[in-house]
Amino acid sequence: MSNASQARPAASELLAVEGIEVIYDGAILAVADVSLRVEQGGIVALLGANGAGKSTTLKAISGLVGADRAQVSRGHIRLGGEDIVGVAANQLAGRGLVHVLEGRHVFSHLSVEENLLSGGFLRRPRRGELEQDLERIYAWFPRLKTKRRIQAGLTSGGEQQMLAIGRALMTRPRLVLLDEPSMGLAPIIVEEIFEIVAQLNAREGVGFLIAEQNINVALRHVHYGYVLENGRVAGEGPAAELAAREGIRHFYLGGG
Q: pTM of this prediction?
């Protein structure tokens, strides 16, 4: 078990989601009642099967849910104590909350380094500062440095996932929302990505909220987890307790 998952850190609250409801097209209830917390410097998993409401919850938090013709119709979302429901995603990124979408979205025609730079421009840094941030990302993801001049669309799935995370880190976030980072990747690459996430958290204090179906790898690296079923929180607890809880995998088979 990773050192990061030994205990949930005692710290002040970074993100608070309180009883949110999300409706698509004014009629379809996707999330019925979700409440969760991420503490400063915490790593939290949002677990559940396809259709449980994980991605919708992340998009509600990051301000991207409106792009899917949906809205937060009830509840509160607070970042550092400030209500952020209705705040645009680019403004939230400027406040330290950034979302890495499911599916490894990169600018395929741009080089790896150009993709990373696109994340850094949000802060309008000086050239020297931008170069320092690039080297910081390359230190965390050495694979990206060797591919820095290659078009992102020509890199492997694992490298594109690392690139998407690295681009998010170029914004210098307080909290990263990661949606299904293990999807379609070989187990050894998944393990490498989660280890990097755990080390980023431990050394730099970056918070993570990770929507993930791979409960085995997730619960080895996070501090706390919430299990979603049909748009509601069906269970929660420290990672070690959830991993030991009999029946948690029934949620992934629709059994509750």
A: 0.90
